[in-house]
Amino acid sequence: MRTLLLQAVSRLQKLANHPCLLLALTSQPQVKQERDIQFAKLALGDEFDAIEAITTAQVERLSAARAKELASEIVRTCGKLQVLQSLFPVWRERGNKVLLFSKSTQMLTILEKWLALSGYSYLRFDGSIPVGPKRQRIIDQFSSDASLMVLLISTGAGSVGLNITAANIVVIFDRTQPD
Question: What is the 8-class DSSP label of residue 160?
């Protein structure tokens, strides 16, 4: 019973952050993928196809019209992104630099798609970047390049004592549960 409750809470957290998170990762075992897709179809109903299109789209291959449409879909399906979409133009106009944190690299990928499709310049900093000089180069580039507005950071990668002073806005997209 406890396991079912924890699974339900986990799925609700994913849904609260973005419905695309309900879809299975292709790296997961086939049984889990099928179970996640079944749940997503049930939870999303008529929205399932739109959500699936967001997760499978390859940004670099989209026409300008389709890119604009997909960016709208990403935002339409997520209240948190609707708020960010209203704030980002103001922040861009003011020359702000933004640190955008998420505990989920899957969520970072969705945010990355939205930023790319919306024309915001960004860098991504997650656990796939090895500790060492490459991490520092990313921080230095974000700090020195005025055209870069956003640094996407996974909270796992960001917990190793980063010193990023160039940003003046911090957004924590999803709340990290205490241990």
Answer: T
Domain count for the chain: 2
pLDDT tens sequence across 105-122:
888 989 999 999 899 999
Could you tell me if residue 137 is left (phi over 0), alpha (psi between -120 and 50 degrees) or otherwise beta? alpha
Residues 88 and 139 in one domain: yes
What range defines the domain where residue 148 resides?
Answer: 79-172
SS (H, E, C) 3-53: HHHHHHHHHHHHHHHCHHHHCCCCCCCHHHHHHHHHHHHHHHHHHHHHHHH
Identify any residues that bridge with 102 across adjacent strands, giving them in sequence order: 154
In the block, which residue shows the tokens 């086939």? Answer: 30
Q: Residue 127: CA atoms inside 13 Å, Cβ hemisphere, count?
A: 9
Q: What is the CATH classification number for the domain harbouring 94?
A: 3.40.50.300
Hey, which residues does 122 pair with through a beta bridge? 150
Rounded CA-CA distance 78/18 in Å is 6
10-54 per-position pLDDT tens digit: 877 888 888 888 776 666 788 877 888 888 888 878 888 888 878
pTM above 0.85, yes or no: no
83 and 168 both lie in a single domain: yes
Residue 62 dihedral angles phi and psi, to the nearest 5°: -90, 145
